[in-house]
Amino acid sequence: MSAAASTGIFDGLWFGPAPRDEQAARAALREAREPLDVLRAAVDVCKLGDMTPRAVIIDMLQIIRDPAFTREAQDVVLAIARHDDLLDDRTTSYLASAGFDVVATFAGSATAMLAKAAVPLLFTVLEESAGDPELAPYAFSGLRALLGLDGSLSESSDIDELAEAAQARMHAVDAYYVLGGEPFSPASVAKSMTAHAMRALDAATPYTNVVEASRLSIWSGLRCPIYSAATIGQTDVRGLVEYATALAALPWRPGTKYFYGHDVDGGPGLRA
Fold it and tell me: What distance in Å separates the CA atoms of residue 206 and residue 197, rounded to the nearest whole number?
């Protein structure tokens, strides 16, 4: 099942394929004038491995106060942000005046950020959500996804207890980008996605891999062939297994964050 057609930059799965014509992509960025056009062109250049437009995108997110633009730009920023970007308070200053949906999406996008620097930001959301119990689960789920917090903890746990557990997990991992309390690697996500698909096939129950398919597609730049929230068949499962196998063959470096196969910090990418 493909992602639904969308006029947005993020189509529900990823930000679309990387441009084939690099010069045309760069020209589009130079010539763009409207905010969404600039954002779309900047993302295309980032897909090519040139993260120079990242600063412009972050600036636009703070300056332009249009809810529709904020949602689009936030999706992009969280996918391309470095650990150092998230350490900079200005990168997320827009959240102070954002509505519930933007803040909830931010908190629910921990696995897009991947950075340890996201942890204090999630704690801020958790602490400020005391008067909004609908928001707390998003922040806690993000913390658990990044740090692999003990199952006895929940969003209703004492904040000091959560902070102590989070601090211990962060100190135990020698990497800026983490998932499940380990240096980031997509292997666990791909493995979980295919195992879930096999169980759903055997039980003939609806299968969803919306989040996993999106993350893997954006990290690798290889579009996940199955993006589903419905019953799947044997062919679908085979496609997911083949996709996971193709991802496993790429030279991922543990603890490195990627955008379309490119190291967001400028190191070696996944393809020559």
Answer: 9
The share of the chain scoring above pLDDT 70, in percent, equals 96
97 pLDDT band, cuts 50/70/90, is: very high
Q: Please report, for residues 40, 134, 265, the alpha-carbon distance to residue 178 in angstroms, rounded to integers and kept in the order given.
A: 28, 26, 15
Element (H, E) at 254: none
What's 22-55 look like in SS3? HHHHHHHHHHCCCHHHHHHHHHHHHHCCCCCCHH
DSSP assignment string, 180-249: TTEE--THHHHHHHHHHHHHHHHHT--EE-HHHHHHHHHHHS---S---EE---HHHHHHHHHHHHHHHT
Does the pLDDT at position 191 exceed 50? yes
Helices 100-107 and 67-80 pack at an angle, to 10 degrees, of 10
- Is the confidence at residue 57, as pLDDT, over 90? yes
Domain boundaries of the chain, sorted by first residue: 1-80, 187-251
Q: For 53, what's the count of Cα atoms within 13 Å in the CB-facing half-sphere?
A: 23
- Which pLDDT value is given to residue 10? 94
pLDDT above 90: percentage of residues in the chain: 83
